[in-house]
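Thread: "does anyone have the structure for this chain?"

Original post by V.I.:
We have the sequence but no experimental structure in hand. Need at least a predicted one for the grant figures.
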Amino acid sequence: MTATAAPTLGRRVLRSSAITVVGFGATQVIRLGTNLILTRLLFPEAFGMMALVSVFLMAIVMLSDIGTGPAIMQSSRGDDPVFLDTAWTIQIVRGVVLWLVALAATPGLAWFYGEPDLNSFLPVAALALIVMGFFPTRLETANRHLQAGLVTLVEIGSQVISVCVAMALAWAFQSVWALVISGVVASIAQLMLLHLLLPGHRNRLGWEPAAAAELIHFGKWILLATLCGFAVGQADKVILGRHLDLGHFGLYNIAYSLASLPVMLGAVVMRRVLIPVYCNSPPLASPANAARVRRLREGALVALLGLSAVLAFGGGALVRLLYDARYQEAAGIVVLIAATQTPALVILTCDHAALAMGDSRRYFVLTLVRAVLVTAGLGIGLHLGGLVGAVVGQGVAQIVTYPALAWLVRPHGAWDPAVDARFMVAAALLAALALWTNQIDLALIPH
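Reply from O.Q.:
Generated one for you, tokens below.
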């Protein structure tokens, strides 16, 4: 990397980071405000039902993900129109197939959870999968080149449209349909805004065997990794959705959406900032690159742990302030989730380094280890301590995963044990102190 290239990359990183954080904050403020209004128009069971719909849609999306986005970002052909059109065609076919899978699976899912209404809600909600298949590859091109401004604008715009629809329907019908239809509208709005606002190549249906082979070769490990990633991120929803009644499951998901803000922000920063940095500034290439990556990780971890501290210490008070009496049991759940998720932040800020270097196989191995440990921790914790045990078990599993993380990123120069040790200790102390100071709220968590 030349002397002039580094400052240019630095400025782009700072600009993209600032836009990403501000955009994330704006979307979360909108989401929270909407949630507060909808919780007064609807009822906890409605959010429980929508959570069942969402977790299934996420499942089939993740279990069929061949990583076209990461493939575009790391490929030397990432700006080649032929390569992009092939990737777009694959996305479209996948979206249609996923909707058909959702239709076929709906009766079985309704039977498994004992909720016949899923037969009506799920096929309509799954239409969003077809729409998302048509998202242009300009979205990934913008991420590849750290152009976060218009992407953030698109996300906020589509969210505002979805919010308006959800609130209008909830006020008029007071039904789960408000949440189902607004989800489909959000995907349509995002598709339209992506086409209208993002510059770059205009996709056309196309197929080049060499491009398809590269995408599929890279994506075969991504497919397996996202299968395991579903277990890491959604096993709690699948298992607790059957263990808890619909009302308490709705409370859990409301609490989770609030407590997981640091993890959500970390994922966005990783995708839009850190992965492009790892691609453009590989730590192994020079000491300057390694120092740059370390500074970015440290800055990200300070911000993410700070946000976790706010939620771990004040999450209970926040729930009591914002929600009515029907949702007060969520207070302790917010505290517990925010405290026990802190170790995951250390992993989150570097686990994609290998993926940025095209090493999708090792990334799959890490995700597999995490999936096994997190699912085991969830199951053992649920058996021993109910909902509290399930959440704590997942947090412990993230710590146990660390040796696999070191194995993954070390060959790519992204393993920094000194940084990891400092922040792991800080995360553990933060979690312990937050749990000790919020014992009253924790005692109210349903089993």
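V.I.: this helps a lot. The two ends are 55 Å apart (CA to CA).
O.Q.: and The CA atoms of residues 357 and 387 lie 39 Å apart.
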